[in-house]
């Protein structure tokens, strides 16, 4: 009986551990993790995009109405991105992610399928979920799991800044101070960006003219001409990295998941630390 009880305890712990992890999937330079969306009596398990550049969660409008049965009269229209773009919003009953249930989650509702087409997720996990604590991204096992934000950092540490340090950037942006060709600049670590983006005036040389796919919450997927900067070396802290960039039109650059080159890492929102393992 005692051995049976111990076996049950081990099985219970294993079950809890498994539920506290979510499998990571990488596709088209984007990162997805398993999550469950609950609304009224509806439950859906879906791969959800992890987007550190998005302040709130976003749910696809067709999925919200047809699958989750969110009523249109629940939606509100608000301004986003400090532009005239309009997007609806709603509360979802709960989201289950990495062993924790988040109740009454406020989400944007957008026609993700119509905008992003073949790249469209049904659900995007934004910073409102991620900033609840710290997260370990294990690239060897392809999992994401909660992490104790009080643990002593042992890897390479980058202390990030946000809109409190730089009022001209979006709320919840992860801002890393950097240098490109000796010039000080800033990058936002944005896992929802397909491309690394560089500000004007930092590239030494003649950029290539390329055709690239582009889309954002206010513009459907289309092909546009862009300037490609190859093999740009930049520094964060004492470390140097080299990546290809396109020239963006914002006051900060963007670094997507490619920046970490397959490193396991910890995002510690409580301490505003990016730790490379």
UniProtKB/TrEMBL annotation:
Keyword DNA repair (UniProt): no
PROSITE patterns found in the cross-reference section: PROKAR_LIPOPROTEIN
Keyword Signal among UniProt keywords: yes
Signal peptide: 1-20
Keyword tags: Signal
UniProt superkingdom: Bacteria
InterPro entries tied to this protein: Peptidase_aspartic_dom_sf (IPR021109)
Stated name of the protein: Aspartyl protease
Species in which this protein is naturally found: Bacteroides intestinalis
């Amino acid at each position: 009986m005692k051995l049976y009880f111990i076996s049950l305890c081990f099985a219970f712990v294993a079950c809890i551990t498994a539920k506290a992890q979510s499998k990571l999937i990488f596709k088209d330079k984007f990162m997805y993790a398993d999550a469950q969306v609950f609304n009224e009596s509806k439950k859906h398990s879906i791969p959800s995009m992890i987007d550190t550049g998005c302040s709130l969660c976003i749910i696809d409008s067709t999925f919200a109405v047809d699958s989750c049965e969110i009523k249109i009269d629940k939606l509100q229209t608000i301004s986003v991105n400090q532009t005239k773009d309009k997007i609806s919003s709603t509360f979802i009953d709960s989201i289950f992610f990495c062993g924790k249930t988040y109740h009454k989650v406020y989400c944007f509702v957008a026609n993700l399928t119509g905008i992003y087409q073949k790249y469209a997720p049904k659900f995007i996990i934004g910073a409102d979920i991620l900033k609840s604590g710290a997260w370990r991204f294990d690239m060897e096992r392809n999992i994401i799991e909660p992490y104790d934000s009080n643990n002593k950092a042992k890897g390479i540490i980058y202390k990030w800044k946000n809109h409190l340090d730089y009022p001209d950037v979006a709320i919840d942006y992860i801002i890393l101070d950097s240098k490109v060709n000796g010039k000080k600049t800033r990058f936002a670590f944005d896992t929802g960006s397909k491309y690394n983006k560089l500000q004007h005036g930092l590239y030494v040389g003649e950029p290539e003219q390329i055709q690239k796919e582009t889309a954002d919450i206010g513009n459907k997927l289309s092909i546009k001409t862009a300037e490609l900067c190859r093999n740009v070396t930049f520094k964060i802290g004492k470390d140097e990295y080299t990546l290809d960039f396109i020239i963006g039109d914002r006051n900060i650059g963007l670094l997507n998941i490619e920046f970490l080159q397959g490193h396991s890492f910890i995002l510690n929102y409580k301490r505003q630390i990016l730790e490379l393992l």
